Amino acid sequence: MNGPLLLAARLVLRGLGRRRAEAALLLIAVTAATTAMTIGLALDETVSRPYQRTWEATRGPDLVVDAAGTGPESLARMAEIAARPGVVAHAGPYPLIFKHLTAAGVTMRVVVQGRDTAPAEVDRPVVTDGDWIRPGGVVMERAFAEALAVRTGDTVVIDGHAMTVAGIAVGTARGTFPQSGWHEPGAVGTEKGGLVWADRDDLVTIAGEQQPSYTLNLLVGDGWTAPEISRGWSIRTAAEIGARYGSTNELAGTALRTGGWLLSVLAVTGVAGIVAGRIVAQRRRAGLLRAVGAGPGLIAGVLLAEYLVVGLAAAGLGLAIGWLAAPLLFRPTSGLLAPDGVTPPPLRLGLAAVGLALAIAVAGALAPIVRAGRPRAAPRRRTWRVRLSRRLPVSVLIGVRIHARRTGRGRLVTVNTLVTAAAFAAVLTHLAQADDPLRDGASTLPDPRNERLASALLVIAVLIGLLALLNTAVSTWAAVLDARHPLTVARALGATPVQAGLGLTVAQLLPALPGVVLGVPLGVLLYGGDKSAPGSWLLTGAVGLLVLVATLTAVPALLSARHPVADAFRATPATTEVAA
Question: Which of 40, 226, 364, 455 yields a CA-CA distance of 20 to 30 A from 435?
Fold first, then answer.
């Protein structure tokens, strides 16, 4: 057993060392897919871990009870809840009022919570800048303050009352901006808004004639049972509040995970294209291994192991890049305390990255490798294609015949352009959507969810664009090498270098066209949205993608076609290979 394994390991290392450029291209392709998928999966972790740390630092409540009404009856009911069996500790009830706050010309809904200057037993917001509340001085929730660009010492106006910002803090008893739970007094449904802590006496002044409602924070243990509450009351758990923190990244996470799958498809086509481009070398190597006594299993194992090694390296690289990039790109801890140092990714995330990378490597490389170990098959010619091509111009005739001989590679081009067109159609559809700010009748602030969705789409578009460009370049390179002999024959029969070069361009455009035609509506469908992008945008993008494919093919094809025919015959084999 040691002998075959040692031989296989040496062959794998030697194969990677001799094909460094191919290994680098594979590494880039698989890393792009695992990076996008890791960022999408990491968003939940980059919120849950800081939330847990903030919950512990602030001694966050297990349960938060909000009263539906106002007045002595609500206070009496909350006193009963605080005295129930299983309550370990409680804080409050704290008065709440729902007003509008104006800062730097921007008006936004705000939940004002009356607090004491002394620290509470449950829910102690951590001040990250400035000091805790004082008479005439309020403390703003940090994500809310960042959205309004408010700093310590600034003045804000709450329902006509000017207040100084004494400090900025984070807490875990209510959701971060804009999910603080604002609602009309007496109403059940909540709206978007921010959170401000104020001195109890100041709250009475700010409230004016508005009667405050109340909130109660609880730590519970064994024996706790939830009370029966009337309509409009609510009991929120710490997990439910934590979910509010993560909801800001929900759209971005969905976009990144969807983009990760699109990138995975692109990576598979890229791997298959790279492997198919080296099919002649793979056949020669497989033949040498058969000549020295290697069986089909060892041959396929050696060839496949090279791509698995690259896949493992790409998994580690994509995992590291995605894990480090997620908090930088989407700032999930603006309303929470950031973790100390760089925490390692969870095991499930690492296993997902490794599984995805290996699946891409196997899916892309297995079929070409298996074909490389089999005897060569003669090309199949279909009579109807031959008859049709006779009536076409020379360049188109050459392109149709090259495409007919390489239908497998044509399918890779179709998939590549389909995914690329779908991604950019989704981006154009996003740009066509109406700006959806936080709606309260006065605010001009953008919705953080839309901002982070735009960031996610930008990441996906850049990665897909780079990977699609790489795939197109590899496909073009393989097509130029693969078509040297047919183009040389065509030139020997009278075709000009320009006709030969344009023929290869046509061969690449034929499979790219259906990919673009199907990809554009697929991208619009994937995004959804209230309205589609203008037809002129989509048409321009589709034509631009086809022009890019044509340009990337025409330049190397025309350069290759300018070599003298005699030299080209000496440089190409007498027989052609049937590639993927």
Answer: 40
- Paired with 94 in beta bridges are 215
CB 451 within 8 A of CB 433: no
pLDDT attached to residue 466:
83
pLDDT at residue 72 in the model = 78
Q: What's the N-to-C CA distance of the chain in angstroms?
A: 33
DSSP code at position 248 = T
Bridge partners (DSSP) of residue 162 are 157
The Cα–Cα gap between 180 and 195 comes to 6
CB atoms within 10 A of CB 124: 18
Blockwise average pLDDT, block size 10, the chain, 580 residues: 56 60 76 81 74 85 82 81 86 87 85 88 89 91 87 90 92 83 68 87 86 87 77 79 76 80 79 64 59 58 72 86 79 72 79 84 67 54 64 74 72 85 84 63 66 80 82 75 69 71 80 89 80 82 87 75 58 43
* Phi, psi (rounded to 5 degrees) for 340: -75, 115
DSSP state string for 424-486:
HHHHHHHHHSPP----SSS--PPPHHHHHHHHHHHHHHHHHHHHHHHHHHHHHHHHHHHTHHH
Residue 571 to residue 579: CA distance in whole angstroms:
19
- Please report, for the chain, the start and end positions of each structural domain, with discontinuous segments joined by +: 1-58+261-331+341-375, 68-232, 383-436+446-580
Q: Are strands 106-115 and 213-220 parallel, antiparallel or unpaired?
A: unpaired
What is residue 577's predicted lDDT score, i.e. its pLDDT? 39
Please say whether the beta carbons of 493 and 394 come within 8 A.
no
The CB density around residue 284, as the number of other CB atoms within 10 Å, is 12
Distance in angstroms (rounded) separating the CA atoms of residues 536 and 177? 38
Answering whether pTM is above 0.85, one says no
Please give the structure tokens belonging to residue 112: 């004002």
Query: Exposure pattern of 90-108 as b/e (b: 16+ CB <10 Å)?
Result: bbbbbbbbbbbbbbeeebb
Please give the structure tokens belonging to residue 195. 């959170």
CA distance 218 to 65: 8
| Listed residue (376, 471, 384) closest to 420, CA to CA | 471
Q: How many angstroms separate the Cα of 302 from the Cα of each of 10, 11, 135, 275, 543?
A: 9, 7, 75, 14, 42
